[in-house]
Amino acid sequence: MKSEEWLDIVKTEISLTNKKYRYFQNNISLIKNDLRESLKDNKELPFVLNIIKDINDIIAKELIDELVFISVYGEPSNLANAKDILLRIDKGWLEINLMNSIKKVLAFKFEEDYLDYLYRNIADLFYSLNFKEILNSFLDEYCKNATDKKLQEIYEDYYII
Questions:
Q1: What are the tens digits of pLDDT across the range 58-109?
Q2: How many CB atoms are located within 10 Å of the residue 99 CB?
Q3: Can you list the pairs that 12-19 forms with residues at least 24 positions away whose Cβ atoms lie under 8 Å?
Q4: I need a surface site. Which of 24, 40, 117, 142 has the fewest CB within 10 A?
């Protein structure tokens, strides 16, 4: 015989699945707005990243700026989830659009202590996507001649001949 706790979990999961289904039948602009706002809330971030993983590329493409920011500057667990979402998006579309989002991230004024974290994650994203030319261009511009040894190490670690 199944325990009451187990039956309660099953009932809750079924209810959640039904609510998600009904919610995603709503207006697409409402959904994008809700997701965009939730990406700004650290408490909701893991949940919303999992939701985005389960839906189509169209919505992920609409949230590209937010996903790129999280994938290169977020906390490690959120960073990995955002990167996974980006890796599922059509590579041709990403190759055209990704650098615009990266430039928006780079426009922020980060403390120099965080630049190696940021640049390494950007390089890793390009490497994971197998965007060799974009990766090398980024490394040449931001890491190759840097005075910071950590940034030079990123160049050495990721530059593809």
A1: 889 999 999 999 999 988 889 999 999 999 999 999 999 999 999 999 998 8
A2: 17
A3: none
A4: 40
Q: Residue 111: left (phi > 0), alpha (psi -120 to 50), or beta?
A: beta
Summarize the confidence of residues 140-144 as an average pLDDT. Answer: 95
- Residue 40 phi, psi (nearest 5): -85, -10
* Residue written as token pair 């990995």: 80
pTM: 0.83
Rounded to whole angstroms, the maximal C-alpha distance in the chain is 68
Please report which helix (H) or strand (E) contains residue 114, including its range.
helix 112-128
Tell me how far the alpha carbon of residue 136 is from its chain's centroid: 21
Residue type, position 55, single letter: I
* Beta-carbon contacts of residue 14 (< 8 Å; ≥ 6 apart): none
C-alpha to C-alpha distance for 28 and 116, rounded to whole angstroms: 37
Residue 140: CB atoms within 10 A of its CB come to: 12
How far is the C-alpha of 144 from the C-alpha of 131, rounded, in Å?
Answer: 18
Among residues 90, 158, 98, which one has the least CA distance to residue 124? 158
CB-based contact 46:85 (threshold 8 Å): no
Structure tokens at 54: 């389960």
The two structure tokens encoding residue 122 = 């950007």
Residue 71 near residue 125, CB atoms below 8 Å: yes
